[in-house]
Design goal:
The structure holds 2 protein chains of 2 kinds. By secondary structure, chain A is an alpha+beta fold. The relative contact order of chain A is 0.27. Helices cover 21% and strands 29% of the residues of chain A. In chain A, strands 2-1-5-3-4 form a 5-stranded mixed sheet. Helices cover 31% and strands 40% of the residues of chain B. In chain B, strand 9 and strand 10 form a beta hairpin. In chain B, helix 2 (55-72) runs antiparallel to helix 3.
């Protein structure tokens, strides 16, 4: 087992009142598995996590990515940079 | 890499610096895009904005978008500055400068960059109104 850091931004960070959390996972835990652990640990209420993208060590990954010790996982809500809306 | 300059900053954007970075004597086109904070969205009066970013990742993803642009168009240099923190109405929230030999490549690449920025760069915008605030998503719905 090892610990990984998960960080939250913008709407999720405010909703959860949480900037980061550490969770324990075993070898061969995928992103999919991490999300399951998170959902047991945190009440996301009506927030639909499936609209978020996931980044590991500052790169986007898919659900099958296998977490390694020391990885930094970020939950990325839909982005909205730039000036105008749409 | 000296073909690009990328910053996410809490300070007012120094666009002259970006222009100077991109211009070269053999290039005939420097396309400059300013994104400016509007005072209205969805018929609601906006007082000011706040941007939050996952800074290191945002800079990294911007650099990847620049790689995509260089593969698609004949452009030479790209400079981008995006604000973080509070930005008041009428202030510049982002500046993108692209230089190329002829205008078409830098103009097309500008449009492409902004579309990609709104898709994948981890920067979020929150609007503040007289009666509340809301995080925006560039995906409708």
């Amino acid at each position: 087992m090892f610990e990984v850091k998960i960080i939250f931004f913008s709407i999720l960070r405010e909703k959860l009142n949480l900037r980061e959390i550490f969770i324990e996972c075993g070898e061969n835990t995928s992103i999919h598995g991490v999300i399951e652990i998170l959902m047991r640990k945190i009440n996301f209420e009506d927030y639909d996590l499936s609209k978020c993208m996931i980044a590991v060590n500052e790169d986007y990954v898919d659900d099958n990515y296998l977490i390694k010790n020391g990885d930094e996982i970020a939950i990325i809500p839909p982005v909205s940079g730039g000036s105008d809306f749409l | 890499m000296n073909d690009r300059y990328i910053e996410i900053t809490n300070e007012e954007i120094d666009f002259k610096k970006l222009y100077n970075f991109c211009k070269e004597d053999h290039l005939g086109a420097v396309n400059v895009f300013f994104g400016v904070t509007r005072n209205v969205n969805n018929a609601k009066k906006v007082l000011y904005l706040e941007y939050e970013s996952y800074k290191n990742m945002a800079e990294k993803i911007i650099s990847k978008i620049i790689d995509e642009m260089i593969n698609k168009w004949d452009i030479y240099k790209v400079a981008i500055s995006h604000r973080s923190g509070r930005v008041d109405i009428g202030q510049i929230s982002m500046v993108l400068v692209i230089s190329s030999m002829h205008r078409k490549s830098s103009i097309s690449a500008t449009d492409y960059f902004i579309d990609r920025l709104k898709e994948i760069v981890p920067i979020w915008k929150k609007e503040f109104y007289e009666d509340g605030e809301s995080w925006l998503s560039s995906t409708p719905g």
